[in-house]
Design a protein that fits this description.
With about 180 residues, the chain is mostly helical. Among the domains are: about 5-80, no CATH class; about 100-135. Helices cover about 50% and strands about 10% of the residues. The protein has helices at about 5-25, 60-70, 70-75, 105-150, 170-180, and strands at about 35, 45-50, 150-155, 155-160. The N and C termini lie far apart (about 125 Å). One of its GO terms (biological process) is positive regulation of amino acid transport. Keywords: Cell membrane, Glycoprotein, Membrane, Phosphoprotein, Signal, Transmembrane, Transmembrane helix.
């Protein structure tokens, strides 16, 4: 950062501007701001004199209040921040802490609630799948049992008799109806 006479002039103008805004008097001029002990590392101290009495300096508390009130304008003029432009004995103006638009507890609550809902849905879906799988296995087992009941008689496969319903031989049923009257 090149600190030259133009930069000094801009700094004096910004301090004069701050003093004018703070005291609401248009008496502070650029010539009332005096820079002392300027070093190569851009380190110096300054004094603001009273324009009505060129010899008297403005109290430090007024200068501090004026700079604190216009700190952001001074920082912006030099494209610096509170971390890079430091005024000794003048506390930096910290920005207020950023508050999220939604409270943190609400975000945590939402995440926990979503996990619970996902767990319940998983349990229901897995239960339904197990139930379907169990039904499918039982029907396959019944089909296998029916296929196993086929027996061989005289080398000819025959179905096993259903003992509950019984079987009627159709050949003899027709003859019985012909000869038997009801």
């Amino acid at each position: 950062y090149a600190w030259d006479a133009n930069e000094e002039y801009l700094f004096k103008a910004m301090v004069a501007f701050a003093m004018r805004r703070y005291s609401s008097k248009s008496t502070t001029q650029i010539s009332n701001v005096l820079l002392c002990n300027v070093t190569d590392r851009v380190s110096f101290w300054f004094v603001v004199t009273d324009s009505s009495k060129n010899v008297t300096t403005v109290p430090g508390s007024e200068v501090e209040a004026a700079i604190r009130m216009n700190r952001n304008r001074i920082n912006n003029a030099f494209l610096l921040s509170d971390k890079t432009l430091q005024f000794l004995k003048i506390t930096s103006t910290l920005s207020p802490p950023v508050e999220p638009s939604t409270p943190v507890w609400l975000i945590v609550f939402g995440v926990v609630l979503c996990l619970i809902v996902i767990g319940i849905v998983f349990l229901v879906v897995s239960g339904i799948q197990k139930h379907k799988k169990k039904n499918k296995e039982s029907t396959e087992r019944e089909n296998l049992e029916e296929q196993v009941e086929v027996t061989l008689e005289n080398g000819i496969p025959c179905e096993a008799l259903d003992l509950k319903a019984g079987r009627i031989n159709g050949v003899f049923a027709a003859d019985d109806e012909r000869f038997t009257s009801l």
